[in-house]
């Protein structure tokens, strides 16, 4: 009968995004004893209640209230999701359907969580702009909450925010929800993780270098996997064997979904475009240049709605440690969340997890004990050039 109505609002300034829950349904706080604590990031007690049937999201653009300059952003976001998961998007009429608008009064972006009702709300404006933020909103529509609202977030974030002093509406973007299933590990680089705009929550201890990485508009490997697990998307037995922690891609079972930096149908190759370099005992330098150009809209020069990427594979002999030092990065891109471009050195042992990103001009040496070490650069605006130095040393 009564379905809780939950609306999230994403308010985006240049460097941070902020969701606000507008309306709060009746029964998120109840639980019925025998259910184990679960989460992903779905709400409600019945984990299937808010799933889209047949993995198909129905939507239409409201002709009167949608800003069609944002149509390409939304369609690309859908294309990214449908090419990595079994989720499909359909403009066929349906009882439950998303009405896409651009709420120009608030300039907010928001979405209801999951498959809810006829003409359910979704707003996307030019303030939000990027494909990554459109993916964020659509992932809400698929039934998921924010990463920093996961049941395990206190193991990853040190919250100093005064939640009790906040309005209910604000709180609902930060509170841990009761009914959750955790389907994937915590990833600070999730597109569902807010940047820490006001020094309110920090990655704990050893993860402190993940600070800039929070607030990412790059869709994480684990974001797609979370969707595939919840919607039970999979491939049959003849799917290819995937290397380097990839898994068969439910949208095309002849390919794999690969961690960033790996490619080819089975993730055994270097992702393109890219270069492979051999580390030596001596420091060597290399410069990565990524020219994203600009998007021209009504004579305005804007950043692109999506990123371009390039990859390095830095090879070292077996059992050696690779050291990589970022010597110089790009001015004007030092933003929380590194939304305009950054370099990420994949030091994490699990290549599926996001590693620390660098978008400020800081000189830092990082170490990796695997080979290849993937260095990923991405950019959405003009020319970015990053200079790094690399070598190998004996493993201690
Ligand atoms: C799901 O797909 C089946 C078979 O194609 C169809 O009969 C059914 O109506 C679909 N359900 C919805 C809710 O679209
Ligand atoms: C699926 O992937 C294979 C292997 O990369 C490719 O040849 C094929 O065109 C893809 N199919 C579709 C429908 O995209
Ligand atoms: C690498 O770049 C740094 C800083 O630009 C410079 O000091 C150093 O000499 C360079 N090293 C090599 C081997 O080119
Ligand atoms: C690397 O380390 C492993 C485990 O300690 C050892 O078995 C192997 O022989 C080492 N390889 C080389 C080339 O040193
Ligand atoms: C980055 O810092 C280096 C060393 O402090 C400096 O030489 C360089 O000009 C800076 N680059 C930018 C783009 O700010
Ligand atoms: Zn959100």
From TrEMBL:
GO terms for biological process: molting cycle, collagen and cuticulin-based cuticle; proteolysis. Transmembrane segments: none annotated. Residues 39-234 form the Peptidase M12A domain. The keyword Transmembrane helix does not apply. PROSITE patterns: ASTACIN. It holds the Pfam family Astacin. Binds 1 zinc ion per subunit. Its main location: secreted. SMART domains: ZnMc (SM00235). Keywords: Disulfide bond, EGF-like domain, Glycoprotein, Hydrolase, Metal-binding, Metalloprotease, Protease, Secreted, Signal, Zinc, Zymogen. One of its GO terms (molecular function) is metalloendopeptidase activity. Zn(2+) binds at residues 136, 140, 146. The keyword Electron transport does not apply. Residues 1-17 form the signal peptide. Its cofactor is Zn(2+). PANTHER family: DISCOIDIN, CUB, EGF, LAMININ , AND ZINC METALLOPROTEASE DOMAIN CONTAINING (PTHR10127), ZINC METALLOPROTEINASE NAS-22-RELATED (PTHR10127:SF794). This is Zinc metalloproteinase. It comes from Caenorhabditis nigoni. The gene is Cni-nas-22.
């Amino acid at each position: 009968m009564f379905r809780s109505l939950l609306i999230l609002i994403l308010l985006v300034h240049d460097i941070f995004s902020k969701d606000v829950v507008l309306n709060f349904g009746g029964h998120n706080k109840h639980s019925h004893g025998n259910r184990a604590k679960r989460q992903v990031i779905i709400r409600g007690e019945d984990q299937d209640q808010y799933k889209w049937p047949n993995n198909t999201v129905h939507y239409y653009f409201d002709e009167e209230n949608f800003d069609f300059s944002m149509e390409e952003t939304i369609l690309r976001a859908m294309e990214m999701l449908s090419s990595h998961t079994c989720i499909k998007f359909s403009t066929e009429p349906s009882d439950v359907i998303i009405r896409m608008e651009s709420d120009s009064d608030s300039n907010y972006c928001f979405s209801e969580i999951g498959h809810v009702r006829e003409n359910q709300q979704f707003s996307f404006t030019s303030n939000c702009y990027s494909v990554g933020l459109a993916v964020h909103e659509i992932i809400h529509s698929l039934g998921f909450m924010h990463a920093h609202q996961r049941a395990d977030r206190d193991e990853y974030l040190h919250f100093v925010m005064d939640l009790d002093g906040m309005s209910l509406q604000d709180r609902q973007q930060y509170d841990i929800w009761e009914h959750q299933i955790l389907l994937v590990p915590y990833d600070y680089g999730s597109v569902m993780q807010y940047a820490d705009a006001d020094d309110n929550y920090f990655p704990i201890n050893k993860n402190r270098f993940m600070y800039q990485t929070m607030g990412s508009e790059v869709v994480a490997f684990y974001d797609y996997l979370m969707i595939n697990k919840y919607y039970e998307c999979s491939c049959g037995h003849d799917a290819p064997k995937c290397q380097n922690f990839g898994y068969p891609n439910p949208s095309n079972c002849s390919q794999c979904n690969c961690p960033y930096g790996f490619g080819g149908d089975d993730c055994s190759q270097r992702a393109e475009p890219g270069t492979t370099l051999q580390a030596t005992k001596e420091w060597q330098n290399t410069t990565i240049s990524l020219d994203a150009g600009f998007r021209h809209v009504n004579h305005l020069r804007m950043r692109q709605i999506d990123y371009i990427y390039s990859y390095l594979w830095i090879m070292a002999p077996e059992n050696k440690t690779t050291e990589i030092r970022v010597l110089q990065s790009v001015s004007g891109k030092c933003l929380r969340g590194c939304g305009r471009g950054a370099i990420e050195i994949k030091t994490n042992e699990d290549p599926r997890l996001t590693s620390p990103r660098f978008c400020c001009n800081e000189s830092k040496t990082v170490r990796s004990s695997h080979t290849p070490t993937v260095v990923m650069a991405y950019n959405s605006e003009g020319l970015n050039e990053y200079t790094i130095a690399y070598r190998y040393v004996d493993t201690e």
